[in-house]
Amino acid sequence: MPAAAPSPFAIHWDLDPDVVFLNHGSFGGCPRVVLDEQRRLQRELESEPVRFLHRELEDRLDPVRAELAAFVDCDADDLAFVRNATEGVNTVLRSLQFVAGDELLTIDHEYNASRNALQFAADRHGACVTTAKVPFPLRSPQQVVDAVLAAVTDRTRLLLIDHITSPTGLVLPIEPIVKALAARGIDTLVDGAHGPGMVPLSLRNLGAAYYTGNCHKWLCTPKGSALLFVRRDRQERIRPLAISHGANSARRDRSRFRLEFDFTGTFDPTPWLCIPTALRFLSGLLPGGMVALQQHNRGLALRARDLLCRELGVEAPAPESMIGFLAAVPLPPATGSAPAGPLELDPLQLALWERYRIEVPVMTWKSPELRLLRVSPQIHNSMPQYELLARACKELGVVHSR
């Protein structure tokens, strides 16, 4: 097949020109200007590690935290830095205490790693995990709200829910869910792995007890950069996974929450320190700034979804209002064996890579019979790349029977 060129904005990334990279959603992609800033910071760190980590790190993190807090609309003192959203989920769940008989609620679209962390926490305390069944395909966001609230009981102590689901690519209506559960005295932990940069965020207005989200996905920071928001009235109970010097600090100029999270041992903080550079870069790509970039990427995701649904002969599985930068297209059932686990690759994903050098995920959800082709556009992608993907799928025989 003829090659499909990326968009002109691809010049800002070091993506392999021989690969049709359609999977920004899995691990992100760091622009060259942000990588250059990280390397500059790493050289500075290594030139005098004690000065950088011991004398200066707090003062370097403070303005970064303030800028990130302004972007997600919360108080800077309510933010901690973590390496990824999975670590953020684990941090909260490993800190909370439950008793036998407590129910920890989630949904069947929840990210597998976070679901495993929830099960670990339940097993540790003799609690149990309950799962709300959210339909897919679905017709409206209200179906999600109804499914979650119907699963709440008088033993429900916590809800873990994705903001944007990974396998099915849905922007969930978390605000009415958070508020409805709060009225019943139930806290919510929002797994916002894809949230920052994809959808407008106001953690202040959302009101969730806990929210964690990656910066290395849609904010394009270096790998290992994420946020953990803990509402002020819940901070006393939340501790980092690594207990370090802040645990017995006598200082009173900072909260115990910040003293513990800002330094948990020797590490490379440069992914966090690159957040302002990434925000400035993304905001400068299009007239209209970050809002224009979000509109562009969402529009590309919808056009790609429409094209693939049309060419593969399937109806769109969710309303446009529930689509951000991720979009999942149902595939016909697999004819061979299903992937053995969440880190195994579907045969179609392997074939698209080996025959066409197309990097795109094929997700399995609920059962091996339901397979989803997931697109996740960033501004470096182009419609010709998705047209190539559609032709490749048809050439491989991936078309629904009519």
List keywords for this structure.
alpha/beta; seven-stranded mixed β-sheet; globular; 402 residues; 14 helices; 14% strand; 2 domains; Aspartate Aminotransferase, domain 1; Aspartate Aminotransferase, domain 2
Write down how many β-strands occur, each being a DSSP E stretch of 2 or more residues. 12
What average pLDDT do the residues reach? 95
User: Which CATH class of the largest domain is shown?
Assistant: Alpha Beta
CATH fold description of the largest domain: Aspartate Aminotransferase, domain 2
Instruction: Provide the domain count.
Output: 2
Please summarize the sheet with the most strands. Answer: 7 strands, mixed
- State the CATH superfamily name of the largest domain: Type I PLP-dependent aspartate aminotransferase-like (Major domain)
Tell me which CATH architecture of the largest domain applies here: 3-Layer(aba) Sandwich
* Percent range of helical residues: 25-40%
List the helices and strands and how they pair.
Blueprint: E1 20-21, H1 24-27, H2 32-47, H3 49-72, E2 79-82, H4 85-95, E3 103-107, H5 112-125, E4 128-132, H6 142-150, E5 156-162, H7 174-182, E6 187-191, H8 203-206, E7 210-214, E8 226-230, H9 256-262, H10 270-273, H11 275-283, H12 289-312, E9 327-331, H13 347-356, E10 358-359, E11 362-365, E12 367-375, H14 383-395
Parallel strand pairs: 1-10, 3-4, 3-5, 5-6, 6-7
Antiparallel strand pairs: 2-8, 7-8, 9-12, 11-12
Helix pairs in contact: 2-3, 4-5, 12-14
